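Might you be able to consider the sequence and fold that I enclose below?
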Amino acid sequence: MKILVTAKRVVDPDAKVTVKADGSGIETSGLEFKPNPFCENAIEAGLQLVEKHGGEVVVVSIGTEDAIMTMRTALAMGATRGIFVKRPDEQLDSDLTARILAKVFEIEKPDLFILGKQAVDGDSNQVAQLVAEYLGLPQACFVSKLEVVGTKVLATREVDGGLETLELSMPAVISADLRLNTPRLATLPNILKAKKKEIKQFDIAELGVDPTLKVATVAYEAPQQRKGGIKVKTVQELVEKLKNEAKVI
């Protein structure tokens, strides 16, 4: 099997993020970056399938040269090789990301494309669905259990009423949920090996993808600071504040 997986570089979700004074973005100095947690589940899923059925896991990422370090993490986990698409200004939206990934899929022609269900920075949850649409492939999103039987994929996913299992013909697009698995930690020998693994680089122009964005980010704004609580003396005063100040009743 050949399995294509994503590895997006994101700000550490546990880091304290501040907005630039001009609202043009976030302050990145001093911030830690890591692979998107959902992408780690996608990578682990690919590795488990290859360990069972044989083949290779190919990791893909888009962004600045710094994203290569994120890809090395995936290679240290066990991915065979990488594909890096350069976007120096990091100007991406879900649609452009999906069109780039669809082109990479066409080049690699994998049996499965496993993506994280969403990135923890944008939280859009759109890319996997767009990729499947552009490629005309079957898809299963929010997958919490994944199994390959012959040329079919059995994907269990969470829905409002519980769980449903879908049978898909390969090639197919899968988006991984956190419940799919527990990503492995890279060992020191594998970290050293990862430095020598191949990462092929492309420019967007080489892929023949129009870099025009459909969604423009106008500005960033920090959320309002939470105000301190107050004590009320009576139920009537509580109701009045809930109605006139909080406006929740």
Observations:
- Helices lie at 37-53, 67-77, 94-108, 127-135, 188-194, 204-207, 235-244.
- The mean pLDDT is 92.
